[in-house]
From TrEMBL:
Domain SRP54-type proteins GTP-binding: 343-356
PANTHER family associated with the record: SIGNAL RECOGNITION PARTICLE RECEPTOR SUBUNIT ALPHA
GO BP annotations, alphabetical order: SRP-dependent cotranslational protein targeting to membrane
UniProt-recorded name of the protein: Signal recognition particle receptor FtsY
Cellular compartments annotated: Cell membrane; Cytoplasm
Chain positions covered by the region annotation Disordered: 1-20
The organism of origin for this protein: Rhodoferax aquaticus
Reaction(s) catalysed (UniProt annotation): GTP + H2O = GDP + phosphate + H(+)
Record's keyword terms, sorted: Cell membrane, Cytoplasm, GTP-binding, Hydrolase, Membrane, Nucleotide-binding, Receptor
HAMAP family hit by this protein: FtsY (MF_00920)
Keyword Cell membrane: yes
Length: 370
């Protein structure tokens, strides 16, 4: 579930600036902030009567999260827990003993490494657990499991950040990823949610190296009734430039640019991505406003390598983690949080439109240990 706050033209300036009191969360001011993909706003919006509309600000609105999880979110969380079930079973099995001892810590170390958490994150978690056990004096493994949930939540918290739409017009989002990660499908899902919330979207089929990618994106454009800039055999940087220029001329809220999938070891192709970014900046000196990397959750520690390589080349602003519904172990998010904490805007648990959701650190930690 998502909430978007679409921009309107700002009202004429008042004769003199007047300081306005801060409104309570339930009494939203007439000037609402930019669109924020946040679990909090998504959960709260139904109670507030749907999407909020107002002028764009850089900071997303702070709406309190209801104590009860909405049914739609709970349904998705159940899918996430099922997808991470094997990892959760392996880790939870460590805490079935009667005492906290070195054998338990060794078993937990093995379970975390098997979950793709990586050595740095695993070492950090074990160090924190030992310290907290010593400080608190807990002796029962079940209590230690609760401490582990809190520790993982703290570690993952830097990854929890909303994607803000509307601070710039248009908001230009460049999307990268290796072939097979679910990049184009994720763009299609994101387009659907944007379009459903009355945000105007323009797609750019800049993955010109793979003919099927352009055709696939065209299908998503037709399905979502949005416009697309697509040129057969054209230079991807040129397509991106035309899309940003068209987005500005047509007053679009968002321009989503699908770039060619490539491995970070393909240096000449990585240079092509850098070129696309430079050309986008020629069309709009402030763009791209977001550079997202789509990662297949099944790639394990290779995901960390991808994040580092693409971040070094492009300066990533966010991640989309896909396919956490099969053999994906999930612990790689802990590795990312420890080694390259790029915000995770969305995680996906399947191919359906409602199976891409905002990332929440505590929800994910609980699913990983359920």
């Amino acid at each position: 579930m998502f909430s978007f706050f679409k921009k309107k033209s700002p009202p004429p300036p008042a004769a003199a600036p007047v300081a306005a009191p801060v409104a309570a969360p339930a009494e939203l001011p007439s000037a609402a902030p930019a669109a924020a993909f946040s679990a909090a706003s998504a959960a709260a919006s139904p109670a507030l009567g749907g999407s909020l509309i107002g002028s764009a600000l850089v900071t997303p609105i702070d709406i309190p999260v209801p104590s009860a999880t909405p049914p739609e979110r709970q349904k998705w969380l159940d899918k996430l827990k099922a997808g991470l079930g094997k990892t959760a079973s392996n880790i939870s099995g460590v805490f079935v003993g009667a005492q906290i001892d070195e054998a338990l810590y060794e078993d937990l170390e093995g379970a975390l490494l098997m979950s793709d958490a990586g050595v740095p994150a695993t070492e950090y978690v074990l160090k924190e657990l030992r310290r907290k056990v010593k400080d608190s004096g807990i002796t029962h493994p079940v209590a230690l499991k609760n401490v582990l949930t809190a520790t993982l939540t703290e570690m993952l918290q830097p990854l929890q950040k909303p994607l803000v739409i509307g601070a710039q017009t248009p908001t230009v989002i460049m999307v990268a990823g290796v072939n097979g990660a679910g990049k184009t499908t994720s763009i299609g899902k994101l387009t659907k949610h944007l379009a459903d919330s009355q945000a105007t979207v323009l797609l750019a089929a800049a993955d010109t190296f793979r003919a099927a990618a352009r055709e696939q994106l065209t299908v998503w454009a037709d399905r979502n009734t949005v416009e697309i800039i697509s040129q057969d055999g054209a230079d991807p940087a040129a397509v991106s430039f035309d899309a940003v220029s068209a987005g500005k001329a047509r007053g679009k809220d968002v321009v989503l640019i699908d770039t060619a999938g490539r491995l970070p070891t393909q240096l000449h192709l990585m240079e092509e991505l850098k070129k696309i970014k430079r050309v986008i900046q020629k069309a709009d000196g402030t763009a791209p406003h977001e550079v997202l990397l789509v990662i297949d959750g099944n790639t394990g520690q290779n995901a960390v390598t991808q994040v580092k390589a693409f971040d070094d080349a492009l300066g990533l602003t966010g991640l989309i983690i896909t396919k956490l519904d099969g053999t994906a172990k999930g612990g790689v998010l802990a590795a990312i949080a420890r080694e390259r904490p790029i915000p995770v805007y969305f995680i996906g648990v399947g191919e359906k439109l409602d199976e891409l959701e905002t990332f929440n650190a505590r929800e994910f930690a609980q699913a990983l240990l359920a």
